[in-house]
Design the sequence.
C-alpha cells in the first residue's frame, strides 16, 4: 500500500476538505486547507486522490499510522495459521502400521492441523477403488471425535485423497494455546537477553 500524500506534497489547486471529526468543510484552495491544518496543529492528508477534486482530511497522521499498524498486527495475530499435514497409506496396510499412522493423524488433529490422507494404489489395485474408499472411511470413523471429513475421498490418478479437519472449537483452543506458548517463549527469551546484558 502506497503512503498517502500529506501537507506540502499535495500538489492540486483545491481539495474537498473533511474536518478532524469527519465533518464536511467543503471545497477549499490548497493554501486555505494547509493554513487550517497548521492552525489546528494537524496534518492535511489526501484520502481520495482520484476524486474530483481530491478529498483531503485534517488528522494527526502519526497517530493514524500508529493505530493502522496496531490494527494490522492484531489482524495478523488473530489469523489462524492453517497447516495441512500429509499421511500416506498403502491399500494392503498391516494392522500395526495402520495403528501407528492413525496415531499420527490424531496427534496432528489435536494440535489443530488439517490432515490430507492419501491411499496409494499399485498395479492392479487401481481396479479396486472401493477398497481405498473403505480404508479412508474406516480411518475417518476412528478419528471422528477429533476431526471431521472436510473433503470426501476422491480419486486422483493412482491415489485416493481425503482431507480431515479438526473440530472448530478444538482448532480455536489449540491455536490459542499455541500462541500463548509462543508468547511465553518470547518473554523468556527477552528476560534471558536482559540478564545477559552487561550492567552499566
Sequence:
Amino acid at each position: 500500500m502506497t503512503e498517502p500524500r500529506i501537507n506540502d506534497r499535495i500538489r492540486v489547486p483545491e481539495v474537498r476538505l473533511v474536518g478532524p471529526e469527519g465533518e464536511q468543510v467543503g471545497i477549499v484552495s490548497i493554501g486555505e486547507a494547509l493554513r487550517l491544518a497548521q492552525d489546528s496543529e494537524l496534518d492535511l492528508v489526501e484520502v481520495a486522490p482520484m476524486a474530483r477534486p481530491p478529498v483531503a482530511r485534517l488528522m494527526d497522521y502519526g497517530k493514524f499510522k500508529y493505530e493502522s499498524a496496531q490494527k494490522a498486527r492484531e489482524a495478523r495475530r488473530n489469523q489462524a495459521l492453517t497447516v495441512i499435514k500429509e499421511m500416506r497409506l498403502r491399500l494392503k496396510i498391516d494392522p500395526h502400521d495402520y495403528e501407528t499412522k492413525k496415531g499420527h493423524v490424531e496427534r496432528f488433529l489435536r494440535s489443530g492441523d488439517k490432515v490430507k490422507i492419501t491411499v496409494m494404489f499399485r498395479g492392479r489395485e487401481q481396479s479396486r477403488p472401493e477398497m481405498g474408499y473403505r480404508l479412508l472411511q474406516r480411518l475417518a470413523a476412528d478419528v471422528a471425535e477429533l476431526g471431521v471429513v472436510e473433503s470426501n475421498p476422491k480419486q486422483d490418478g493412482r491415489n485416493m485423497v481425503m482431507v480431515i479437519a479438526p473440530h472448530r472449537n478444538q482448532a480455536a483452543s489449540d491455536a490459542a494455546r499455541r500462541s500463548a506458548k509462543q508468547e511465553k517463549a518470547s518473554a523468556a527469551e527477552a528476560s534471558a537477553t536482559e540478564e545477559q546484558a552487561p550492567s552499566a
Q: What stands out?
A: The helical segments are 30-39, 61-78, 95-110, 129-142, 168-196. The chain has a mean pLDDT of 83. DSSP finds five helices and eight strands in the chain.
